[in-house]
């Protein structure tokens, strides 16, 4: 057993009241890693109290999802151990109203992000494809061949891993990821295609703001960009969700998928503050890196996927601010 697994086991064995938390706006990896860990504790330590709190339920049915306690605020309820999965620090998990970080419970982080982690009693992060892979690896290391992959754990594991690896398309999928996936699929032949298909569905109302984004699209060399203005949102009476969905669709499936185009950005007004605009950048591997541009605008992200907020009076000005930042970053 690895040293970190032994340490985790020791901390777990001493705890009585355990709370599992994950990042805000939880994705499937967040839910699946937390639920697998909860199942593990429930199975091997049935006398311990373990709860998993989040602000919302997953968008599709997954095993054990009814065990997620949906709460608005997170305060200490006498826990002696808090475990964060799929998050490197409190900040990713808590809002300003939550006070749980002030409790003197022990803190363990099980993560796979590059983000700087808070100081903890134990952090396990082997830069795996997903927090789900990290949690499974840990469970398997602690129990060895006795670890029982139930059908539910198999399904949760597969969902977490396929979500965070984009069905094994991203670079984060390693031989270890495939090996764990093989173990999971021997237990249950989960329908990945059906799950991904359902997950990619969007509400009909997304199409109206989407036509605006497409109409506003411009190209410049291998760059494409588009936006939606406040006036267009008001005139069309578009809901916030429909604009957000359309924004994501253009960002992920249009801007860098046009032939001859390798990168781009999408702009929309912020719903939280007047005169603030959200800009999302996407690029293709080996082409223009966008993290530096986003950083110049006060944001950040990864080499080929980044975001920022810019201040501007209208969409035209917001576009100029972003195009200026691009020009000065590329020429420097
Ligand atoms: Mn993740």
List keywords for this structure.
332 residues; inorganic pyrophosphatase (n-terminal core); six-stranded mixed sheet; 11 helices; globular
Structural account:
The protein folds into 2 domains: 196 residues, inorganic pyrophosphatase (n-terminal core) (Alpha-Beta Complex), CATH 3.90.1640; 124 residues, Diaminopimelate Epimerase, Chain A, domain 1. The chain is an alpha/beta fold. It is globular, with a radius of gyration of 22 Å. α2 packs parallel to α3, α3 packs antiparallel against α4 and α4 packs antiparallel against α5. β1, α2 and β2 form a beta-alpha-beta unit. The relative contact order is 0.08. The strands form 2 sheets. A 6-stranded parallel sheet has the order 3-2-1-4-5-6. A 6-stranded mixed sheet has the order 7-8-9-10-12-11. The chain starts with a helix and ends with a helix. Manganese (II) ion (MN) binds next to loops.
CATH C-level class of the largest domain is Alpha Beta
Rg (CA only): 22 Å
Q: Compute the average pLDDT.
A: 95
> At CATH's second level, what is the architecture of the largest domain?
Alpha-Beta Complex
- Helix and strand content put the structural class at alpha/beta
> Strand content of the residues, in percent?
15-25%
The unique ligands bound to this protein are: manganese (II) ion
Strand order within the widest sheet? 3-2-1-4-5-6
Task: Give helix % range.
Answer: 25-40%
Q: Kindly give the count of domains.
A: 2
Q: Stretches where pLDDT falls below 50 for ≥5 residues?
A: none
Which homologous superfamily in CATH is the superfamily of the largest domain? inorganic pyrophosphatase (n-terminal core)
Count of helical regions: 11
**Intertermini distance:** 50 Å
* Total DSSP E strands: 12
Note the main sheet. Answer: 6 strands, parallel
| CATH topology call of the largest domain | inorganic pyrophosphatase (n-terminal core)
Global geometry: globular
Secondary-structure element order, N to C: HEHEEEEEHHHHHEEHHEEHEEH
């Amino acid at each position: 057993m690895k040293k970190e697994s032994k340490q985790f086991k020791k901390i777990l064995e001493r705890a009585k009241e355990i709370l599992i938390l994950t990042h805000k706006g939880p994705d499937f990896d967040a839910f699946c890693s937390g639920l697998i860990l909860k199942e593990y504790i429930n199975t091997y330590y049935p006398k311990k109290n373990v709860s998993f709190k989040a602000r919302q339920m997953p968008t599709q049915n997954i095993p054990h999802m009814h065990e997620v306690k949906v709460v608005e605020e997170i305060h200490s309820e006498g826990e002696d151990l808090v475990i964060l999965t799929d998050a490197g620090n409190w900040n990713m998990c808590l809002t300003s109203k939550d006070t749980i970080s002030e409790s003197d419970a022990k803190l363990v982080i099980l993560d796979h992000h590059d983000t700087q982690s808070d100081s903890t009693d134990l952090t396990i992060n082997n830069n795996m494809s997903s927090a789900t892979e990290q949690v499974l690896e840990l469970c398997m290391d602690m129990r060895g061949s006795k670890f029982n992959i139930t059908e539910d754990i198999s399904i949760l594991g597969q969902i977490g891993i396929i979500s965070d690896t984009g069905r094994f398309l991203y670079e984060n999928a390693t031989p270890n990821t495939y090996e764990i996936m093989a173990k999971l699929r021997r237990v249950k032949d989960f329908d990945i295609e059906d799950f991904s298909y359902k997950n990619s569905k969007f509400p009909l109302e997304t199409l109206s703001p989407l036509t605006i984004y497409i109409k506003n699209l411009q190209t410049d060399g291998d760059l494409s960009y588009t936006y939606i203005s406040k006036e267009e949102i008001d005139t069309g009476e578009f809901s916030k969700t429909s604009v957000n969905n359309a924004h994501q669709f253009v960002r992920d499936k249009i801007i860098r998928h046009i032939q001859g185009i390798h990168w781009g950005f999408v702009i929309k007004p912020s719903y939280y503050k007047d005169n603030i605009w959200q800009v999302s950048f996407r690029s293709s591997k080996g082409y223009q890196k966008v993290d530096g541009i986003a950083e110049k605008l006060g944001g950040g992200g990864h080499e080929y996927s980044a975001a920022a907020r810019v201040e501007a009076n209208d969409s035209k000005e917001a576009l100029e601010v972003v195009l200026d930042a691009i020009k000065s970053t590329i020429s420097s």
